Amino acid sequence: MMDRHTLAALPKLELHLHLEGAAPPAFIRDRAKRNNIDLSRLFDDQGQYCWQGFSGFLSSYDAACTALKTPQDFHDLTLAVLENSASHGVIYTECFVSPDFCGGGDLIAWRDHLAAIDAAAQTAQAQSGIVMRAVVTCIRHNGPEQARKIAICAQETAGQFVTGFGMAGDEAQFQPKDFIWSFDAAREAGLGLTAHAGEWVGPDAIRATLRDLRVSRIGHGVRAIEDPAVRDLLADRGVVLEICPASNIALGIYPKLHDHPVAKLRDAGVKVTVSTDDPPFFGTSMTQDYSALADCFGWGRDEFADIARIALDAAFIDAPARAVLQKRLEEACPTPT
Questions:
Q1: Which of 242, 276, 304 is nearest to 10 (CA)?
Q2: Disulfide engineering: 178 pairs with which of 144, 236, 290, 318, CB 3.0-4.6 Å?
Q3: Number of structural domains found in the chain
Q4: Exactly one of 14, 171, 199, 242 is catalytic; which is it?
């Protein structure tokens, strides 16, 4: 069994991390104080985020975001998040960033916030070697019209840093087909595509998302285990799942890790990766997730290296940067011959 220090040192690639959702509670408390916002009810007696149920989580998430007002707030947040990720061996991360929280979908305000996030990412890379790319994300429960504004923001800022487009939020609201325009616009801009599906809604939602939005990755997707046809569809097409085990358990989708389908999906040939989603809300980290998976399923260096390679292949990143990451990964975890 690998010890925690060894697990922490393994190179990791995280494809499913919400920038605002990764904000340390102390950071949000500080920004709320600076910006004269009362968020005292957001925290428990230990200073951690408190919430109940998925709707409560979404409300707490939105409340935390009200403390973030300026590009400088997002610059400092990005540095804090990437510094923490790097301490857990993450060499590459894709952060979901939403213009909804950075100017309400206004393109000019979005450009200012994005420049601050990008600058912080470059600083973090120089300091610790961690590489970040941004996945512009519309929020499903804000509706298709707002999603169009977010897609335009993504179109207009697509490039070396903004490399993907996705959709998060309440999966029970609207249908994938309602967002076809937004995903087509992002595709035309050359962005990689992902969408949350098969988390709270069953496997049919995954099928509809693949059909209507034509994504290469699915956020969560764990409910595919309930329908062998959908599970096999994912495997046959090579669709990559951004699985967040601790998130699924904290939100009550599965009672404990032993009941989580990540190992069964992997054994069935589905390409799975591991991410933390909103780690301080769910009390986790990449090291903790790796340790839990190792304890529960007996995974070791070979399994985690395979997961990292899948994540690298699925990453929304240019070829030269991918090659550099590939070299770092192979140096630590050589491909078996």
A1: 304
A2: 144
A3: 1
A4: 199
